[in-house]
Amino acid sequence: MIRQPYDAEKESKVIGKFRTFPSPAAPDGYLPRYDRPVTPRENFISMLKGEAPQWIPNFTYDVQPFCPRVIPDNVARGMVMDAEPMEGLVKGGLDMFGVDWEFEPLVGGSMVKPGNPKCPDICEWEKYITFPDLDKWDWAHASEVNAPYFDGGRIVEFTIFSGLFERLISFLDFEGAAMALLDEDQQEAVHRLFDKLCTFYDEYIGRVKKYFPMVDLICFHDDWGSQRAPFFSLATCREMIVPYMKRIADSCHKNGFFFHLHSCGKNEMIAPAIVESGVDMWIPQPMNDFDYLLRNFYDKLVLSVSPPALTEELDEEAIKEACRKYVESTLVVPKPRVLCFASSALRKYPSVTKMLNYLYPISREYYSKL
Amino acid sequence: MSIVKEIASAVEAGKSKVVGGLVEQALNEGIEPSVILNDGMISAMGIVGEKFKNNEIFVPEMLIAARAMKKGVEVLQPHLAKQGVEPIGKVILGTISGDLHDIGKNLVGMMIEGAGFKVLDLGVDVPPEKFIEVMKENPDCKVVALSALLTSTMPALTSTIKAIEEAGLRDTVKIMVGGAPVTQAFADEIGADGYSEDAASAAELAKKLYGVA
């Protein structure tokens, strides 16, 4: 992609609208479209393909998350983002495997109440776990109602809840899942389960392609760590998870999707496994060492660098300065492939929201000179 | 390698299938049950905790080590009872009201148990009244460990400590707190006696609060 010089005045002009799902940020279902050299989608895709972007994408504006309610997991996990009305939607309940999730409104997410796992013995999971029948979901209806909300200007990301380890936890509870990864009496059963899950996800991803062709990116939701360390070692990850992640990545790629791993936790120790899995993008949480990740992996995948936690009310100059520092921190490598993802916890601070508004002009200025 | 060292290695490596047999062998060789417990198993769990803290091993390794120790203790328990060997003390443990998360709490429970305590695990979403009820039933318990994973449930740590105060039991126990959003500063602010940032440190803290560290 040709890097165009930055024209501040021209590029701040609103020249139209992007369609989006109605939300508090866009109550009428539209976002302003600015006169940028390329669309947010084109900028993002060139970055996913290996180029430095023309500006640092702001996830909140440049990406349209898509979690349609036709997928039972999206409702069970309380993460529905689609074109249909939210009124009357009851979050939580059974996921696609019949596991019961409890929605917690204060957190905005769900969890399986621990203590009574669906599968009491992983070695006999076939007795307890029935795979979903994809034909039973009304894909055609979901396709029809959602299609008008995608205009090709922004990246569309479809999230798959839950990934491999999260699915294992949902079946066995956390301790059961963690032990099963290492216990030689249980490992074979885990391989069997993950193998079948990959076959299932392959078919599932194929349906996504068929019914939601506007999707660009598949987000695979699989938390691998706590706030202090990964749950498992790099060796365990390589042995038990990476081979199957590669298959999921292949399923995405053969359908023309990029593959985003959503994996919370301080996971920098297992970043090599993330790369080996064929992941195109990862959004590490703020407790990770971004400098280390960027310097070591910028040429392997797109990384998000969390914006600073500007929890105090700052004046405009201080916010601009924070934004400059943020952008400069990404320029420690020659062709940074960086995304800015601000969590909802950060976005509640006005200074963070204001900083995100400066991200386009400031990063555009710096990145136009790369 | 002595049999006690073999037990320690087996616990550390999580070899739950062999630990029971090794403990039996050690008993047959006339080794004191308390030596098998302390030098064979508790010390092994101490090493596991240290390695976990240093990110040399991770949750699965810690869990299978705890499971292996449990197998050994099952064999050892009747002998310990016969000799009147008691746990170091009791620790009441639970995730506070409104919070369903049990991962950190369970790991803490395992490591505290591995350090030689009896753990009274009250589970998740535990109301203050339940903590108070169990404290009254166990007046010999000197440590209560409270866990919270969510910023939204952190206030329940404060209210649980307050309820224990109002029940007139605050002076009878030391209270330790932990969980992802909890910090030393927060623990100080709410009047807790201790804070630990991981399961291995929690076991050390329990020992310190019991005065046996």
Description:
The complex is a heterodimer of chains A (370) and B (213). Helix content of chain A is 40%, strand content 13%. Chain A is globular and about 65 Å long. With 370 residues, chain A is of the alpha/beta class. Chain A contains 15 helices and twelve strands. In chain A, α7 crosses α8 and α9 runs parallel beside α10. Chain A has a single domain, classed as Alpha-Beta Barrel (TIM Barrel). The two termini of chain B are 28 Å apart. Chain B has two domains: 80 residues, Methionine synthase domain (Methyltransferase, Methionine Synthase (B12-binding Domains), Chain A, domain 1); 121 residues, Cobalamin-binding domain (Rossmann fold), CATH 3.40.50.280. In chain B, strands 2-1-3-4-5 form a five-stranded parallel beta sheet, sandwiched between helices. The relative contact order of chain B is 0.13. Chain B is of the alpha/beta class and 213 residues long. In chain B, α4 packs across α5. The longest helix of chain B has 24 residues. Classes of the chains: A alpha/beta (370), B alpha/beta (213). Chains A and B meet through α8 of A and α4 and α5 of B.
Kindly summarize this structure in a few lines.
The complex is a heterodimer of chains A (370) and B (213). Chain A is α/β, with parallel strands linked by helices and 370 residues long.
